[in-house]
Amino acid sequence: LAKSIAYRPGQAAVYHPMLERKLILKPFQVHPPELPADFVAEAWEKSLRGAVRASYGCDGGVEKMQGSKSLEERYRIVDTICRNGRELELFDLLQRELHSHIFSIVKSISECEVDDSDIHEALEYLKHVQDAWKRHRRDL
């Protein structure tokens, strides 16, 4: 077998093992596991929807979420969904939930009846609108 030899002019030839081997670096590729067809819908119903609703103060708020998944577990679920290219499904579910929440706020405002001739009722109505707006901004 021919061995690689390091040679410099004026010196004796010396065998060097590093000249014989080559180190090849390849990029590390991670292929996410295949998800079941209903994974996004199931994850949404089991943990993500409740977390979104709690962040908006629905269902008793964040304090009432004891016994459910931790923030880290929810993060991993969302990360898994996004890495599998199914982020649009999650986006649609999130968008529907947000529309539902905003619709409930608008509905609560529109259900208030106000007598135009009574200034106190009009002020109460405006206060109700302002409170709803403040709650919405706080929840975001």
Description:
This protein is mainly alpha-helical and 140 residues long. The chain has a single domain, classed as 5 helical Cullin repeat like, CATH 1.20.1310. The chain is built from 4 helices and 2 strands. The chain has a two-stranded antiparallel ribbon with strand order 1-2. Strand 1 (5-6) and strand 2 form a beta hairpin. The radius of gyration is 31 Å and the shape is elongated. The mean pLDDT is 81. Belongs to the cullin family. InterPro entries: Cullin_N, Cullin_repeat-like_dom_sf. Residues 64-138 form the Cullin N-terminal domain.
> Kindly, what is the distance between the CA atoms of the first and last residues, rounded to a whole number of angstroms?
71 Å
Give me the count of strands: 2
Percent helix: 40-55%
Q: Mean of residue pLDDT?
A: 81
Order of helices and strands: EEHHHH
The description of the largest β-sheet is:
2 strands, antiparallel
* Shape, principal axes of CA atoms: elongated
Residue windows where pLDDT falls under 50 for at least 5 positions: none
Write the layout of secondary structure elements.
Layout: E1 5-6, E2 14-15, H1 39-55, H2 71-83, H3 87-110, H4 119-139
Antiparallel strand pairs: 1-2
Quick recap of the structure?
By secondary structure, the protein is mostly helical. The chain contains four helices and two strands. The chain has helices at 39-55, 71-83, 87-110, 119-139; strands spanning 5-6, 14-15.
